[in-house]
Write a structure and sequence with these properties.
Blueprint: H1 2-35, E1 42-52, E2 61-70, H2 73-81, H3 83-95, H4 104-122, E3 128-138
Antiparallel strand pairs: 1-2, 2-3
Helix pairs in contact: 3-4
Length: 139
C-alpha cells in the first residue's frame, strides 16, 4: 500500500513539474515575441487617376486607384508633401504603357514595380515597399 502511494505521489509530482516547465517556457517565449514588435507600416493614397494609355490601335484609357505602402509613417508624410509630383509621376508611368503592357497579372505587377521605382527615385527618403491597385480598369 505504501509503495503504491509513493509511486502515485511521484507520478503526480513529475506531471506537475512538467506542466510548470512547459508553462514557463511558453510564457518566456511569448515575452520575447512581444519585445520584437513588427515595423509600423504606412499607407499613402494617391487617389483615383484616369489617363490615356500609350497610343496603339485607337484611344485607350486607364482608371486606377493607387495605394502605396511604405515602411513607416514618416515616408507617408514625405509622399504627402510631394502629392502633386507623386500623382504626376504615376500618370507619366501610366501614359508610357499600352493596354497590352498592363494586361493580366504580369502586366499589373510590372506596372506596380515601375511606379514604385519611379517614386523611389522621386522621393528617396520615402521607403516604398509595395504599390497596390484598389481599382484597375482599362477601356
Amino acid at each position: 500500500m505504501k509503495v503504491k502511494t509513493v509511486l502515485l505521489l511521484l507520478v503526480v509530482v513529475l506531471l506537475v513539474g512538467t506542466l510548470a516547465a512547459a508553462a514557463l517556457f511558453f510564457v518566456q517565449r511569448g515575452g520575447r515575441a512581444k519585445e520584437q514588435k513588427p515595423p509600423v507600416k504606412g499607407l499613402f493614397s494617391a487617389g483615383e487617376i484616369v489617363t490615356n494609355l500609350a497610343p496603339t490601335e485607337g484611344r485607350r484609357f486607364i482608371r486606377v486607384k493607387v495605394e502605396i505602402e511604405t515602411r513607416d509613417e514618416k515616408s507617408v508624410q514625405e509622399l504627402t508633401r510631394n502629392y502633386a509630383l507623386v500623382r504626376d509621376h504615376i500618370i507619366a508611368v501610366l501614359r508610357s504603357k499600352s493596354a497590352e503592357d498592363v494586361a493580366g497579372d504580369t502586366g499589373m505587377a510590372a506596372l506596380a514595380r515601375d511606379i514604385a521605382q519611379r517614386l523611389s527615385n522621386l522621393v528617396p527618403s520615402a521607403q516604398i515597399t509595395n504599390v497596390y491597385f484598389v481599382e484597375f480598369v482599362v477601356q
